[in-house]
Amino acid sequence: MRALGPGSVSSFLKIILDVVFAALWIGVVALSVITLAALLLSFNPDLMDSLARGASSSNEGRNTAINELVTNGPSITSGLLAAALYLAGILVIVGSLRRIFTTLTAGDPFHPDNVARLRLIGLMLAGLELGRYAFWAVSAWLLPGVGRIEPSMSLTAWFSVLVVFVLAEVFREGARLRREAELTI
To answer: Three-state SS for 10?
Structure first.
């Protein structure tokens, strides 16, 4: 099976990326709506109290969950916001990969725009990893009594960032060589 062009492995992977891209959009929108609802409910605890009082006594588990949301609203909201931002970062990465695979399916791997797309992917990977460290630091500072999760520096993540930046330079050089070959008669 071919690696480039229509009906190739790259076109199959492009289809998979399209499905993942749509699922990520749904996830980002759903998490954003849930985050907004949690944020609004955390600013209006009277609404949550009335919901808790309005629930019947047979729904003790539900009452406990509502009271939990009232007391831990800001921490739940910040966790949901962090998850939505993380998914949005993954959405940017998958979107860039989709555009790269579009050029691969067209048989044009050294398209000049692929360099910028790979650099964006590298920056997003680095940003997601730095965001993970920031989220850990802020949560450890704001929630000191919560179970301690020790941060770990992921060498795999940073290695991936470096590999993507090196690939961007390889694609930049390939695009330059292609331009020179097109000028040669």
So the answer is: helix
Q: Could you list the beta-strand ranges (E) of the chain.
A: none
End-to-end Cα distance, the chain: 33
Q: What pTM was estimated for this model as a whole?
A: 0.78
Closest CA to 89 of 135, 133, 120, 134: 120
How far is 131 from 120, CA to CA, in rounded Å?
16
Gap between the Cα atoms of 167 and 92, Å rounded = 18
Q: Where are the domains of the chain?
A: 1-80, 110-185
SS3 content of the chain, % helix, strand, coil (to 5): 80, 0, 20
Q: Hey, what's the torsion of the CAs at 29, 143, 53, 62, to 10 degrees?
A: 60
Q: Provide the residue count of the chain.
A: 185
pLDDT in tens, 146-159: 655 666 788 999 99
3-state secondary structure of 164: helix
